[in-house]
Amino acid sequence: MQNKNGFKNSGIEIGLYTLGEIAEDPHTGKKISAAQRIKEIIEAAKLADDAGLDVFGIGEHHRLDYATSAPPVVLASIAQATKRIKLTSTTTVLSTVDPVRLFEDFATLDLLSDGRAEIMAGRGAFLESFPLFGYDLNDYDELFMENMELFLKLNKNERLTWDGQFRPSLINAEIAPRPLQKELPLWIGVGGTSESAIRAGRLGVGMAIAILSGDPVKYKPLVDLYLRAGMEAGHDLKDLKVGVTGHGFFSRTTQQARDEFYPYYSNYWAYVKRQHGMSFHLTRSEFDQMTGPETALFVGSPQQIVEKILQQHELFGHQRFLAQIDIGGVPFKKVAECIELLGAEIAPIVRKETSK
């Protein structure tokens, strides 16, 4: 992996992801359009690429308050506007997508991007895709496992004969196009259950843990379960990769970051809870506790963010860190400032320390 100056990056990969939500700005009460949101996401990816970051991810939601229901389409546009940054879904709702179409879409993205496509698969925090695409929620787990197992076969075989419960059979089917990479890199997004960690390990794919709050130490058992399950299944330890994803906001000082981000983060959680039919108000004192030096929320000065990432690296030994910084209606100007700090002041130190 090379940075924008042509020098090889060592240490962990550092990047960004977005879910493409369209939230009101808590200061103005205004929303931007879906068209503007997508344009800003593409511009953020360009800035991340120029800043030498390693990965940019886009989430999938099928609601009017989100702009990215088709991540491979947006990622394909980003591929034409960037040169080196890896492009991934964060996450693909694997239970409600046809694995063949998913493979075709991302194999095409891989060709368009000269081998930069990846997939992070999950079961999704929202359930609107099940009725939208005609799937039964009672098959939640079974759909995920069948689709995962089929995708892994598609990733390895140009022709495939396959039979399952939910999808029509494949009889010596040609699986095209083939990606530029030998195989598309695949990760499973894990929210916090041991079953998901063990599943990712047994399958031998990457595990990306969403750590949004609290003490990161409580997630260490998930990493241990993942690695143990992977090795017991016969996978090489070097192929078992751990990623950490979390919310973030960066400013020159930690106090400035807290003062600027609190209205947006409070807005974000009130908004998310409303989507699930609940009311919620995050107080400033609660927020300040959530952003303390021993917690998982990446809000602060570059120095504090570096310290938090390195503390977690000591715990997990992970290979990738992705931050979600555009939540709660944060305006694009602030997003751009965060990207500049991440690329110029945070990433270089983290890479240096984690490459030792």
Automatic annotation (TrEMBL):
Keywords, alphabetical: Monooxygenase, Oxidoreductase
Entry-linked Gene3D superfamilies: Luciferase-like domain
InterPro entries to which the protein is assigned, alphabetical: Bact_Lucif_Oxidored, Luciferase-like_dom, Luciferase-like_sf
Residues covered by the Luciferase-like domain: 13-318
Domain of life of the organism encoding this protein: Bacteria
UniProt xrefs under PANTHER family: BLR5498 PROTEIN, LUCIFERASE-LIKE MONOOXYGENASE
Protein name from the UniProt record: LLM class flavin-dependent oxidoreductase
